């Protein structure tokens, strides 16, 4: 099977090889109609850039480093799918690192990425990372960096995030409208950006509906194993226990569901449960889990597009900004309204 080249595309479309090359790079110098014509033809013939030839020509590795806390986390696996799809079509390959929620490992990952001469870095911070001086040092050396999902506002980069505040507000409002008044919030380490934003959304919904914020209903996890059970026990032992649980992660949602089942707490008859999750099996759980879905794949795609813009130093590369992607509330059986006689 012969390999399709830029010359083949140029000959077939009767345009110059330089026009084809610029169109494939998404250059602002080429009009939209020509770009679409070239991209459609290239896709039809399954054209793929030759990374080795490109790296020699441009003195770049055509590699992008991606550091995530954990690939096994369904959100990050979806985000990586989005990153790889775009990167592959743009002639880049992706090197993936896991920090395993460790600051020390994140810093080591970063050094490994530099040793491999990546052209840019996508990063979602570990749960231990509060100091971002290691990333600032890289940025000062000229390495393009884009943060996604878990981000630091102390680092002047583009940040691609879900609308965590809006999603948490929608989840809490839904529980209130279903008649719940004592809504517990199980969340992750308090210094993470996503924790702060989801807690703020939860508090704002309570305030809007005149329900006082009660900090005894909030519990912070550490990504440890089997930590949900004790949190659920503490909350159920309160003088006025919760009638609903809103969890801020996949792991906490599953842990909370299992803990409530073990304690013979009926969902949604005794308590409601809603997650902030990307679980693809949420509708298969018993009961089917209401959830706020984050657009993980889209977050990955936009993050890598912004990074490639920075790498290729396009004239129209967007300045650093925070891009918020809308979340989506899916209501299922676990938050059904219950009428008590």
From TrEMBL:
InterPro entries to which the protein is assigned, alphabetical: HTH_LacI (IPR000843), LacI/GalR-like_sensor (IPR046335), Lambda_DNA-bd_dom_sf (IPR010982), Peripla_BP_I (IPR028082)
Key words, A-Z: DNA-binding, Transcription, Transcription regulation
A Pfam family reported for this protein in Swiss-Prot or TrEMBL: Peripla_BP_3
HTH lacI-type domain residues: 4-58
Keyword Transcription regulation: yes
One MF annotation (Gene Ontology) recorded for this entry: DNA-binding transcription factor activity
UniProt protein name: LacI family transcriptional regulator
């Amino acid at each position: 099977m012969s390999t399709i080249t830029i010359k083949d595309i140029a000959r077939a479309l009767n345009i110059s090889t330089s026009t084809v090359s610029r169109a494939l790079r998404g250059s602002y110098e080429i009009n939209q109609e020509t770009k679409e014509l070239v991209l459609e033809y290239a896709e039809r013939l399954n054209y793929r850039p030759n990374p080795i030839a490109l790296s020699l020509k441009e003195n770049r590795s055509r590699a992008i480093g991606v550091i995530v806390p954990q690939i096994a986390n369904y959100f990050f696996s979806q985000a990586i799918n989005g990153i790889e799809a775009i990167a592959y079509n743009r002639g880049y390959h992706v090197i993936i690192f896991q920090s395993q929620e460790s600051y020390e490992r994140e810093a080591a990952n970063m050094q490994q990425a530099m040793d491999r001469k990546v052209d840019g870095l996508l990063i979602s911070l570990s749960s231990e990372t509060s100091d971002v001086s290691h990333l600032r040092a890289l940025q000062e050396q000229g390495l393009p960096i884009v943060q996604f999902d878990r981000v630091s506002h102390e680092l002047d980069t583009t940040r691609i995030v879900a609308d965590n505040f809006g999603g948490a507000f929608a989840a809490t409002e839904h529980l209130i409208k279903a008649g719940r008044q004592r809504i517990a919030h199980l969340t992750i380490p308090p210094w993470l950006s996503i924790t702060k934003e989801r807690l703020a959304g939860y508090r704002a919904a309570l305030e809007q509906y005149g329900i006082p914020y009660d900090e005894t209903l909030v519990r912070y996890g550490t990504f440890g194993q089997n930590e949900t059970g004790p949190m659920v026990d503490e909350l159920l032992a309160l003088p006025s226990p919760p009638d609903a649980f809103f969890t801020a992660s996949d792991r906490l949602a599953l842990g909370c569901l299992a803990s409530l089942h073990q304690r013979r707490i009926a969902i949604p008859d005794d308590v409601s449960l809603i997650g902030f999750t990307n679980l693809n099996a949420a509708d298969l759980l018993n009961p089917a889990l209401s959830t706020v879905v984050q657009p993980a794949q889209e977050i990955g795609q936009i993050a890598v597009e912004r990074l490639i813009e920075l790498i290729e130093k396009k004239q129209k590369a967007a300045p650093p900004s925070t891009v918020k992607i809308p979340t989506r509330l899916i209501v299922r059986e676990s938050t059904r309204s219950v009428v008590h006689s």
